[in-house]
Amino acid sequence: MPRIVFAIALFVVSSLDIGSAAAQPLDTNAGWGLPQLMAELAEVKSSSAHFVEHKYLHMLTEPIEDSGTLSYRAPDQLRKDTLTPQVEHLIVDRDALTIERQDKTQTLRLDQYPQVWAIIEAIRATLAGDREGLERYYVVRFSGDAKAWQMSLAPRDPKIERIVRSIRISGSGAHIQRVSTEEADGDRSEMSITEDAR
């Protein structure tokens, strides 16, 4: 189950360096911050993009690379189509997650998997500009400005923290460019995103 969780959690991700920026408190008076970002994201009703994802597993010496397409339709539909090296489709529609791979389909009700739900909501609430939904599950730290911003999400629930240590999302304006997930066991994933023209 964790691999499914992190494949979905890494829905959104380019070349911004997110490792060392100093996080600022949520409500900054610098003119542009988390409230403005959430408002801009809430205006996006649909988007599509290409992604390249690298998974760094402690048991492997080289990262695993996947690539494919992503799509989002407000407020709660996400789709990740991995095209290489193996075809796989992950579809989130309201409160259901459907996984299609190797001619097999499995659907999970997210309310039966609260840890999965919380991780999916990190992405879905961000895309929807839903600050309240995001802060329900995570302590949010924000830094940067409209041209280059970063959010760091720390799980509030210890059960979620046993799966994922942190999620960092970065971008520019209403464009999410990078999602970095660090798992509790030290594995991590990074996805870079190139959005299609709107």
Describe this entry's structure for a reader.
The chain contains 5 helices and 11 strands, in the order ααββββββααββαβββ. With 198 residues, the protein is an alpha+beta fold. The protein has an 11-stranded antiparallel β-sheet.
Quick structural overview:
The chain is built from five helices and eleven strands. It has 198 residues and is α+β, with helices and mostly antiparallel strands. It has one domain (2-195): outer membrane lipoprotein receptor (LolB), chain A, CATH 2.50.20.
By DSSP, the count of extended strands is 11
Number of domains: 1
CATH class: Mainly Beta
If helices are DSSP runs of H or I spanning 4 or more residues, what is the number of helices?
5
List the helices and strands and how they pair.
Elements: H1 2-9, H2 34-42, E1 46-56, E2 64-73, E3 77-84, E4 88-93, E5 96-101, E6 104-109, H3 114-128, H4 131-137, E7 138-144, E8 149-155, H5 158-161, E9 164-172, E10 175-183, E11 188-195
Antiparallel strand pairs: 1-2, 1-11, 2-3, 3-4, 4-5, 5-6, 7-8, 8-9, 9-10, 10-11
Helix pairs in contact: 1-3, 3-4
